[in-house]
Amino acid sequence: MSQTSRALLPFGTTIFTTVSRLAQRHNAVNLAQGFPDFDGPDFIKDAAAQALRAHPNQYAPSPGLPLLRARAAERFTAMTGLPADPESDVTVTAGCTEAIAACVLGLCNPGDRAVLIEPFYDSYRACLAMAGVSPVPVAVRPQPTGRFALDLDELRAAFAQPGPAPRLLLLNSPHNPTGAVFTRDELAAIADLCARAGTIVIADEVYDRLVYDPARTPHVPIASLPGMADRTVSLNSLGKTFSLTGWKIGWAVAPAALSAAVRAAHQFLTFAVATPLQHAAAEALRREGDAVPPLLDTLRHGRAELSRALADIGLRPYASEGTYFVLADHSALSARLGVGTDAEFCQRLITAAGVAAIPPSVFYVRPELGRPMARFAYCKRPETIATAVARLRDWAARSA
Questions:
Q1: Type and span of the H or E element at 337
Q2: Residues with Cβ < 8 Å from 260, sequence gap 6 or more?
Q3: What is the number of domains present in the chain?
C-alpha cells in the first residue's frame, strides 16, 4: 500500500524521469528533457570556483545575497521599466521550480482556485495540489497559422465561474512546452481580467531571453502592462539563459507585500540557496550580454534542423517562437504506423528510432488535448541534433 500523500499520489514519477530512464536503456538521443548537453560560459564557472575559495561557504541570507538581489532588481527594471527594491522585492530561490512552490504555498489558502494555462510545466499542478488549490484550465491551442494561441473564450469563462475570483493565474511566456510567445494582445486580455478580478499573476519568465521570432522580440513582461505592477510576481532563473540548469538558482521579483508571502514559504522550503553559486550568478547577470548571443545561435540552428527533419518524416511541427522546445503533431504518422496515444508514439520513437521525446498529455488537466503531440528539445549541440536527425530519417525510411 502506498504511503504517499493523497495530494501527490496522482502524479507518480515525473515524465522526465520515466522517459530519460527509457532513453538510457535504449541508448536513445535524449531530446526529451529540457537541459543542454553543453555547459554555460567559463566566466561564470570561474566566478563560482573563485567564490568557493574566497567567500564564506555558510548560509546566505534567506532572501539571497545582497549583490545578486541588486543585479536581479537591475535586470527587472531594465526589462519592465518598473522600480524594484532589492531589499524587499527580490527573493533568491532554488531555481524557478522552488519559486513556483513558494508563490503558491505563500499566497494561497486551501479551497482557492487558480487559472492554469495548459499545457503547463508539470510542477505547476503538483504545487497547486500541495496547497489544496483547484486548477481552472485554460488552453493554448494550435492555430492554422502554425502557432499556438491562448483560447480567449476559455479565459473569459474561467473568470466568469460562480464563486470567488481565482486567487492566482500561472503564466509561462515564452511557453513550455509549445514554444509560443504570448502576444501583447493576449497578455493584455490576461491583465484586464486579472486586474478587474483582483487575481495575482505568477509570471514564469525563465525563457525571456530565448525568443527567435522577430514579431515576438523583445519578450513583453506582463508586470509592465497597465494595472499589473502591484499584482505580478515575476520569476526567473540562471539555468535556461546561461545553460546551467543544474545550479538551481532562481529569483522572484514582486512588490513588498507579495514578496513577504513568497518569503514566508521560501524560508521553510530551502531557507537559502548555495552561497558560492549566488556570487557566480551575480557575475552572470553582470555579463548577460556576453552569454546570450552565442546561445541563441546554437538554439536557432537546432530549432531549424530539427523542425525540418520532423516535417520530412511526416510530423507537423508547430512554430517555436521561443524556449528550448518544438511541439509536433504526430497524428498522421501514428495512423500509418498503427500507434495511438502520445505515450505510445514516444515509446515507439525511443525503441525503434533511438530518439527520445516527451508525451505532452501529462502537461494537461484535459490530457486528450495533448495526445496528438510530442515535445522535442533542441537545446543540444549541433552534433547531437545531427545524430537525432539522421536517426529520425533512417527510421522513416525503414518504416515507409
A1: helix 331-337
A2: 88
A3: 2
d(CA 28, CA 355): 5
Residues 140, 17 share a domain: no
> What confidence score (pLDDT) does residue 399 get?
86
Q: Has this prediction a pTM greater than 0.90?
A: yes
Do residues 349 and 356 make contact, with C-beta atoms less than 8 angstroms apart? yes
Q: Is residue 121 domain-shared with residue 258, that is, in the same domain?
A: yes
Q: Write out the three cell numbers for 81.
A: 521599466
Domain range for 207 is 55-289
- The answer to whether residues 143 and 149 touch, using CB atoms and an 8 Å cutoff, is yes
Which DSSP string corresponds to 293-311? HHHHHHHHHHHHHHHHHHH
Q: What is the pLDDT of residues 52-94, one digit of tens each?
A: 999 889 999 999 999 999 999 999 999 999 999 999 999 999 9
pLDDT in tens, 234-246: 999 999 999 999 9
* 8 Å CB contact between 51 and 279: yes
| Residue 253 is assigned to a structural domain of this protein | yes
3 within a domain of the structure (yes/no): no
